[in-house]
Amino acid sequence: MVAKPVKTENTKKTALIGSSSFADFCDKYNLDSELKAKIPDTTFNCFAEKNKFVTYFLEQFEGQVKGKGYTDLILYAGLNGLNSDSGLSSAQATLTKILNQAKQDKLRVIVVGAQPFKGFGSWTPEWAENIKANNAWIAKNSKVDIFIDIYSVFNDGQDKQKKEYYVGSDYLHPNEAGQKVILQMIASKAYGKSGVGQAAKPFTNADSTANATVWNSINADQQPLTQDEIKELLQKPRLKIRIPGLNFSDFSPEDFESSIDGTIYLHKPFFSEYIVGIYRYGIVILGIVCTFFIMSAGLRWALPNAGGENISEAKQQLARAITGLMLGVGSYVILYTINPTLVSFKGIGVAFIQPKDFSVYIKNMLADGTFIKDPNFHYNTTGSNATLSDDNIISVSEKLGLDQCLLWSFAHKESGGKLHAIGDDENYAYNNKPVNARRDFLLSGKKYSGATFTPPASSVSDWEAKGGFKKLNNYAIDGKIVKNDDVFDFGKPPDYGIDWRFSHGISFLQITIFPMANDRTGQKIDGPNGPEWARKVYGRWYTVTDLL
């Protein structure tokens, strides 16, 4: 077991608890010392051992950390034992014990999510889904102060890992490069330190406005992305059809430019490199074709027929081939002569914008944009049903300090601009992403009205074995896609005729309430209409009626 403190005279103490990934982080790569160098006022003690389960995390917390004067806990989410539904439930129950005790001990809790490991010998689709489900559960847990999502950073977009972050063909354990990404994310997200020891540059608008001040105070716990973090998130373009000789350049500090308001722009000439690659490849093809016609014309000239007519034709073919070759090779000079900007390809400046949770803007606010003084205030009736007009968008954006175009795009993408939009997650019938509500509904075999149907699978593991969401989200019987029959009804508060066995997106913002979670993302609270489903957004509960 690794239990290696980095000594300091300061009183701040951070415990790192985990299994193989944290053991390598501390012992093999000695990155806890590098973390200490970035945060010199804190002691970091590592309690990690290879091939351990979350029960080991609980033992270490209760024996080595609890009541020992620690201020922070950095906890690995874990992946061992998550290869079944029972293993997932058991792990979450154990993690809940750790989180509850950590909060009783007044610790700040930072959790590092588990990484993808498709390709490892014992990997299964169910295991992968459970890791993502566990990461999502932790990210939404109210007792977790900061969640560090390494899964999305290490993921290649197909639930497989980026090989450059893993040890050889191991496909499970991060190598030194991967561990340094974890180090950088911990330092930045948990302690506000950039990966290169420089002050992070914020992605904000001019902070002289009152709304920016409100935003900064509400969202002060979110750290901006640094240039190094951006580099980790960026990928070179990957062409489906490879062009010989085309190699996109690597990222360098010169590619980044900060504007006056702090926005970081990436100037990377991928497009121009692509155009140049196509041009060069085209010249090669043109040269081969022209050479063929020149040789063909030469043979016809050298071997004339009895009447000698083909000599004239050979001369014409030879002239056309040489002219085409000269035009192709000399096209650069021709374009430059016409207009030099036609050949001066410049990288497009792409701005990196820090993601913002739009729900934060409605914290403590009434429908007219004024602040609610009573944190226990809840509406007893919904607002009038309507579609957001451009005037509505302008008014709301001015009150909340949002960009009008962003708000318009967000509202119309999520709900079509409908104020009373209800997103029935159990009816998501597209085979492009996993939606647990859809899976659970189809496995239940029962609609809201009580009508039954034959499920496509008998269990979650059977669901995955039959192809999961990629094959079953659009499950149909007799050619008709199976959907729930609940209907939103204004006259039936507080449930409004919604089947609350499953998650639903509410209002034009489509803020999702997860009733199965029974945590801050979905819970019944007492409101004017009786017990009503609600979601906690930045410390305040919003009922369905509030959101509508």
Explain what the structure shows.
Strand 4, helix 5 and strand 5 form a beta-alpha-beta unit. This protein is globular. It starts with 11 loop residues before the first strand and ends with a helix. Helix 2 runs parallel beside helix 7 and helix 3 packs parallel to helix 4. The chain is an alpha/beta fold and 548 residues long. Strands 2-1-3-4-5 form a five-stranded parallel sheet, sandwiched between helices. Strands 6-7-8 form a three-stranded antiparallel sheet, with no helix packed on it.
Question: How would a textbook summarize the main sheet?
Answer: 5 strands, parallel
Report the C-alpha radius of gyration, rounded.
30 Å
Low-confidence stretches: 1-10, 195-224
Count of β-strands: 16
What's the tally of helices?
18
Strand percentage, roughly?
5-15%
The pLDDT mean sits at 78
Helix content: 25-40%
User: What strand line-up does the widest sheet have?
Assistant: 2-1-3-4-5
